[in-house]
Amino acid sequence: MHRVTSRLSVAGQVAPEDISTIAAGGFRSVICNRPDGEGPDQPSFAEIEAAARAAGLDARYLPIEGGKVSDADADAFGRALDEMPGPTLAYCRTGMRSVTLWSLSEADRRPVAEILAAARTAGFDLTGVVRRIANGGRTPTDSPDLTAEVVIVGGGAAGIAVAASLRARRPDLDIALIEPADVHYYQPGWTMVGGGIFEPQTTAQTMGRLIPKGVRWIKAAVAAFEPGENAVILDGCRVVKYRRLIVCPGLKLDWGRVEGLIETLGKNGVTSNYRYDLAPYTWSLVQQMHGGQAIFTQPPMPIKCAGAPQKAMYLSCDAWARRGVLSDIDVSFNTAGGVLFGVAEYVPALMDYVRRYDAKLNFHHDLVSVDGAARTAVFEVAEPDSAPRRVEMAFDMMHVTPPQTAPDFIRVSPLADAAGWVDVDPATLRHKSHDNIWSLGDVMNAPNAKTAAAARIQAPIVAENVLADIAGRAQPAVYNGYGSCPLTVERGKIVLAEFGYGGKLLPSFPKAFIDGTRPSRAAWFLKERMLPPIYWKAMLRGREWMAAPDRPGRH
Known about the structure:
The chain has 16 helices and 26 strands. It is of the alpha/beta class. It has three domains: 2-124, Protein tyrosine phosphatase superfamily (Protein-Tyrosine Phosphatase, Chain A, Alpha-Beta Complex); 147-251 and 406-541, FAD/NAD(P)-binding domain (3-Layer(bba) Sandwich); 255-404, FAD/NAD(P)-binding domain.
């Protein structure tokens, strides 16, 4: 038996002698979805029904011929589940017909990704009926609503940058970009908003102003992928066909994974620079605080901009030090990881600031719940060679970095690896199983830092490789894992971490100008004055300053 929901489980063929076990398992009804006589050794429904009644269970016969689930069949299954006492066990030869009927009957009640995830957890792949699920459980037309040579999923930094890089190389290329949002955000600026340096409105522009001229904007959300059909299914079951697909929708901030967090965000001293509307609250809390407990959290990896959680701490501590109140504030940095930063060469400079601000480092501390009204937080502590335990901490201010995952429609798709990220070759960023699909940005599984700087380098690499594929050539451009994390250790100084795969240092500037392992005013000038216009006017416009793709053999 495979549990689909708390109300429904599905199974392969059951026998009359199984009914007592089913009843003992708490089930109150049984649905048979297998026609009598389908197999030579199959018991009849009459036998199953008699055993069910003897055990006090309701039973219903809804036979479905294999591979022929009609819309009416799904409606009948849904009515049966509503009418019969639960929990219910539905069965057929393998359980596939039963779970398909459930998925179609629930299509107008649940999001597509939730249905696919429940079926996958139960051990069933519903890829073959994803269009019907997206169409509210009804059989859709097979004709596409739109076709493009290249379809890009996602209008964030990666999506617009790769669209601009493609247009810069091939102005006549037929490109469609799928993005439901109206506003595009410069997310690296939110740390500076939380530190009182940038105004929030400088980090936002309308999506329509940024999508490159000539690129068709499909303002919709993606429901699912059909890579075998070269199709993207949108909410409402519109179908977009492609010859090449680029997947870069970013990642999901999973606020709900921390119990009580959503209810207290933006009040009770709980804030986060990972949201546009909350970053100003961070600065407000910093200005108002004169003493007490300040906690800064970091969840398990991967997260976007791995340095951002501690950047919030450094800028807050610097502001308190300048006001002369830092000595009255107990600062804690609680990270689920076991190190301060993943590339060892940058740790000494960061530790100097940890000591300067007298901040306490609590490793292996993962935030699991928040009681905003009581101003308390609970962390699960999972230290090596020790049993996990939970500790409660009081706070007056807490900056939370939320757990992060791939978006739901990616995690349940045929494009994802076992962990839910788009499965790519880390050098070419081409999908490992589907030759006409590429991915970049935060959603793919190459082992690089998830930063806007990484997407800036990846965009021209993917553009060159897609165009090479169109021309029938091998993949010429290679990604070395470059990512950059400007660690704002105080107002006016930055430790500019630049590194690639395996933690290899990849500095962009001569050491005499910027030594990335030491705090630098030049790096601050780069972050404050140069990077925003580079982002808006170069990266998103196809101007690839210091972003030329690497190629094998290039020196």
